[in-house]
Design goal:
alpha/beta; 8 helices; two-stranded antiparallel ribbon; 22% strand; Spore Coat Polysaccharide Biosynthesis Protein SpsA, Chain A; 2 domains; ten-stranded mixed β-sheet; 286 residues
Length: 286
């Protein structure tokens, strides 16, 4: 297999969308630069998302949204993906030129080692144009590139990740998670995610495949989450914010960094605890 700059790689790309007009153009363009097999799975967009996707030359499939895991696994099982590798992206994630170059090098010659089933990709968050490089937010690794037939997504309501059957490796260059949602929409989605996390805490599905202690980067993060969940309700949200914003230097990421860490690290985690407290109190009264 020979890979040259500009050549298409043997990778099928799957992108999930919902009202993603602000970012989907850049996401599809970065995918189309690498692959001639780009698929978008949309869950009922009412903005210009689908017009942008079709104009960019990607295939479109519609499927009602149940959860991220269910949507990703539906795509894996249903779409006519042509290539032996799959790359999965969200609508606000794009392949950087550095990652594209690393992928071309990886697929040059004989391609990836036969023993490797999937690759972790580091993700760099951009929040309203501000790279979030501190507070423990960089790098965060996600399994997104894997051999067809070797990967699936956990069937969890919240904090679901891809996993593969086989050995893994890690890429160095990042994908960008370009968060441009209005704060109203961003917090509304976090409100829904808080409900999903409370559901997961109170009635765990048992389908979390990636277990703490395995050495997997997602598993190690999940182990830290387990320690966080054993800390006192409400106070742990404040402690996490101070850890990320002060001790891990999140304050270096500017004003948008301040907004990000207050909302993502303190407000969201406090909201989860408040909803958890509410649900437990309601159950106790029954």
């Amino acid at each position: 297999m020979n890979s040259v700059p500009g050549a298409m790689l043997p990778i099928s790309v799957v992108i999930l969308t919902f009202n993603s007009a602000d970012t989907i153009g850049a996401t599809v363009a970065s995918a189309r630069a690498l692959s001639d097999d780009v698929h978008v799975v949309d869950s009922g967009s009412t903005d210009a998302t689908l017009d942008i996707v079709r104009a960019a030359g990607a295939s479109v499939a519609s499927h009602p949204f149940e959860s991220y895991g269910a949507q990703r696994n539906w795509a894996i099982a249903t779409l006519a993906l042509r290539h032996p590798w799959q790359l999965h992206l969200d609508a606000d994630e794009r392949v950087t030129p550095e990652l594209a170059a690393e992928l071309r090098a990886l697929f040059a010659g004989d391609g990836p080692p036969a023993a490797i089933a999937g690759y972790y990709v580091p993700r760099l968050v951009h929040f309203h144009g501000q790279p979030i490089r501190h507070g423990g937010m960089w790098p965060i690794h996600h399994m997104r590139l894997f051999r067809s037939g070797r990967g699936r997504c956990e069937d969890r309501k919240y904090d679901q990740h891809f996993y593969v059957d086989g050995a893994t490796a890690t890429l160095r260059a990042p994908m960008i998670d370009d968060i441009r949602l209005s704060l109203g929409e961003w917090t509304a989605r976090h409100n829904r995610w808080a409900d999903a996390e409370v559901d997961e805490i109170l009635a765990p599905s048992g389908s979390g495949v990636i277990q703490p202690g395995s050495g997997d980067p997602v598993a190690e993060k999940r182990a830290l989450r387990g320690r966080y969940n054993r800390a006192p309700l409400f106070w742990r949200a404040l402690g996490l914010f101070l850890y990320r914003y002060v001790l891990r230097l999140g304050f270096l990421d500017g004003r948008w960094g301040l907004v990000f860490f207050v909302l993502q690290t303190f407000w969201f985690r406090f909201l989860v605890d408040a909803k958890l407290h509410e649900r437990r109190a309601r159950e106790a009264r029954r």
